[in-house]
Amino acid sequence: MSDRVLSPRDVHTAAARLPRVRLAHLPTPLEEAPRLAAAIGGGVRVFIKRDDCTGLLLGGNKARHNEFLLGDAVDRGCDMLVWGAGVQSNNCRQTAAGCAKLGLECRLYLSRMNYKTEPQGNLLLDYLVGAHVEFTDAAIGPELDELLAAKAEEFRAAGRKPYFWHRPRVVPLAAVSYALCVAEIAEQLKENGLTPDALYVSSSGGTGAGVALGKKLLGLTCPARLICPMGWPWHIPTATAADANSAAEMLGLLHRLTAVEIDADESYIAPGYGLPSAAGREALRLCATTEAILLDPVYTAKALAAVIADVRAERYRPGAVLIFIHTGGVPAVFAEPEKVLPETGQ
């Protein structure tokens, strides 16, 4: 185990050992949001890391992920991806886009869950970039993972070379990309003479593992608040620490995390994954009307709701610098407008 503090350059150098394809517009801006901060109150400063501006079919965190995941697929000689999540999956939308750019066939198995299956939002974009889509009632998590593994085996038996959602490999690889994102944030803050008092991101998977790892590698002492958009049938802090440690191994680094170092907050999931919350709606409205920045109701709105709640609970001193990592998801806004409009529909 190592406690050696790395520089952002060190983190980039470590990541250079891994196969990678360039897909994202990086670095993304770190944009101060003064009107949003004033609306929240508490005298804090809010900066938004604009990962909704990564490109790759309307932006989001999966553009960073896919630089390493699709890099891994190409390095292994794969000719197709077998992927899956919910009908309005940002993950699948950006994965399908990456496949289109690289000439890989993309097979998506999308769980119906709480979504309609009309071609709107992310699903419409899946079709437009040429993904082959099948719907399933398999629940996101182990059940869908098993389906994807079985489908990949069918393609393999038919002579294809599939790359599929194999959680023990793809989640740590995705985490590498967000350790790099934290290094990017550290560089941008240093340029402005700032030190972070907290990092916030919507994640209960690879993005959060990467943020936690980046914090560890760079020796940041501020909390990294992982606001979970969904629960899993496992202990999220334990799994997140394990994924961060696997990512560190991939990077050839000795740094390790334990579950107690993971601040994973599941209290904002209600009323359920894919369903909007009142606090999330307020956060979405505030961000849109003060900064003209759109959030989505499933992920980023609930994460910003946590920022608002923490500030109003006086968790931070006036002048504190809070970093909100905007992981994208905007296409979902257009799929089901009733989830983002006020209760009155106005």
TrEMBL record:
The keyword Ribosomal protein does not apply. GO terms for molecular function: D-cysteine desulfhydrase activity. Keywords: Pyridoxal phosphate. Residues 22-328 form the Tryptophan synthase beta chain-like PALP domain. The active site is at S89. Its cofactor is pyridoxal 5'-phosphate. Pfam families: PALP. The modification N6-(pyridoxal phosphate)lysine is found at K62. It comes from the Bacteria. The keyword Flavoprotein does not apply. Belongs to the ACC deaminase/D-cysteine desulfhydrase family. This is Putative pyridoxal phosphate-dependent deaminase. It comes from Fimbriiglobus ruber.
